[in-house]
Design brief:
Radius of gyration: 16 Å
Helix content: 40-55%
Distance between the termini: 10 Å
CATH architecture: 3-Layer(aba) Sandwich
Number of strands: 9
Low-confidence stretches: none
Number of helices: 7
Largest sheet: 5 strands, parallel
Number of domains: 1
């Protein structure tokens, strides 16, 4: 059995990161998904403990004070973070772990776990990203503007990642990511 690895995915909202991560988890069923904690409300299709740990702001702040997160951030008026305990348990049990976090979170994970492999999923363009977000129809105009502003910031960090995969064609992007993972675990 190969040494357990950490694969950390980041992308602007709407770039296809979640779809690609779900495909990777189907292709590599032995991998574990690192479930992040958040204070935001659960969406209709989400499951507590599977998509996120949905916790109160008070509990989240208590975990910050107790230094329980490897990374955390507040954006869109909500907290998001990755619990150290989850990562350490997965590594101790020999599980390669997949993360889906924002760019700053990814860079923090790399600081604590230098062997982590950072993969940035880039949209073909900011205009294409705007169209994808509009089609999702999950945000108000104000939230959409915040996501676009944030996307521009996130794109400025892509060169700090080990790999950048441009998602022009979803199937091709999935294949590129699978090849990266196969190369890294072999």
């Amino acid at each position: 059995m190969s040494k357990p690895r950490l694969f950390v995915f980041s992308a602007p909202s709407g770039a296809g990161k979640t779809t690609i991560v779900r495909d990777i988890l189907k292709s590599f069923p032995e991998f574990k998904f690192s479930v992040s904690a958040t204070t935001r409300k659960k969406r209709a299709n989400e499951i507590d403990g599977v998509d996120y740990y949905f916790i109160s702001e008070e509990e989240f702040k208590r975990k910050i004070d107790n230094n329980e997160f490897v990374e955390w951030e507040k954006f869109y008026d909500h907290y998001y973070g990755t619990l150290k305990k989850t990562i350490d348990e997965n590594l101790a049990n020999g599980f390669t772990t997949i993360f889906e976090v924002d760019v700053k979170g990814a860079l923090n994970i790399k600081k604590v776990y230098p062997d982590a492999v950072l993969i940035f999923i880039a949209p073909p363009s900011i205009d294409e990203l705007k169209e994808r977000l509009k089609k999702r129809n999950t945000e108000t105009d104000e939230e959409l503007k915040k996501r676009i502003d944030r996307a521009e910031m996130e794109l400025s960090y892509k060169n700090n990642f080990d790999y950048v995969v441009e998602n022009i064609n979803l199937d091709e992007a999935k294949e590129k990511v699978k090849k990266i993972i196969e190369k890294e675990i072999s």
